[in-house]
Amino acid sequence: MLFRARIAQWLGAMLVTASLAGCGQQSSISDPQTLDLMKQRFADGDAMMACGLGCAGNYGFHRQELQQLYQDQDWPGLESRLLIIGQDGDQSWFYLAAAAEGQGYDSAAQLYYFRSLASRFQCRRPLNVCDGLDLPSLTFSQLGALDAKLQQSAAFAPLNPSSAAKGDVAVKLISDHGIMKAPVLLDGTLPLLMTVDSGDSVVTLPEGAVILLVHDKLVQKQDILGVGSVQLGDGSVVPAFGFRIKRLQIGGIVLHDVVGATSPGPGQLLLGQSFLSKFKSWSIDNGQSALVLSR
Fold first, then answer.
1. Taking Cα atoms as reference points, which of 214, 224, 243, 246 lies closest to residue 1?
2. Which pLDDT tens digit goes with each residue over 189-239?
3. Could you please report the per-residue DSSP string of 98-120?
4. What are the structural domain ranges in the chain?
5. What are the backbone angles phi and psi of residue 164, rounded to the nearest 5°?
6. Which terminus has fewer CB within 10 Å in the chain: N or C?
7. Is CATH 3.40.1280.10 the right assignment for the domain spanning 154-294?
8. What global pTM score does this model have?
9. What are phi and psi of 256, to 5 degrees?
10. Alpha carbon distance 191, 230 (integer Å)
């Protein structure tokens, strides 16, 4: 328990600077076109709610309304109100995840639940003002149910593990709102749609995903590789928290002991060189929309 708490605190500290930078922002969107654009990003799992303490008053003013929208399962209404307020808080992200899941955007919902786990602004601190929500326990529970649902979806149906697979293996890529992604299963329980990125030095996960793995004891003390840096696809080098992924399943292939990392910011799901270098060669077959891996 102490180990998990310390890891969660360390992961949390990495976002403090970025979160505080948004404290002075007052989100108030009245332009319908801007709101429509934000709603498109919402469906992609790329919604931005970057305002911290500076939006606390506005969020507090709408707390009862947000609670009622959540209880009524008015998912479009809840989505719109949250995006307009724009507060980065664990309760805000939890509500946004529920709105995404309620509208069938399961992959986006998963990312927003991750953001809830990783948010530095927690409704239970310093006062318990979570409006009856037991966070983060409820977030872990919702993620568990959602992950089980995703594993049964068509996107992850082709997963048929066989670590002895030889030759070329074609992994069908899934169009996730226009972006081609590969279905991956981590440690047998966490289904993720990940983007192939040869410019990234390691497999990169959002902080919330790592917090979930630690919570579920899938990342333990002996799996921690320490603090270092990783190179991103744009060439930039950022600080990162490294860990060992015990089991990564893709298509008919199972890999063990793959290096993963999480870095500051919202985080992305990227299959970098610590995965790609396990293969003799790899390529993208645009005709078949497949990632071809040669062992």
1. 214
2. 999 999 999 988 899 999 999 999 999 999 999 998 988 776 666 677 777
3. HHHHHTT-HHHHHHHHHHHHH-S
4. 2-150, 154-294
5. -95, 10
6. N
7. no
8. 0.85
9. -120, 150
10. 23
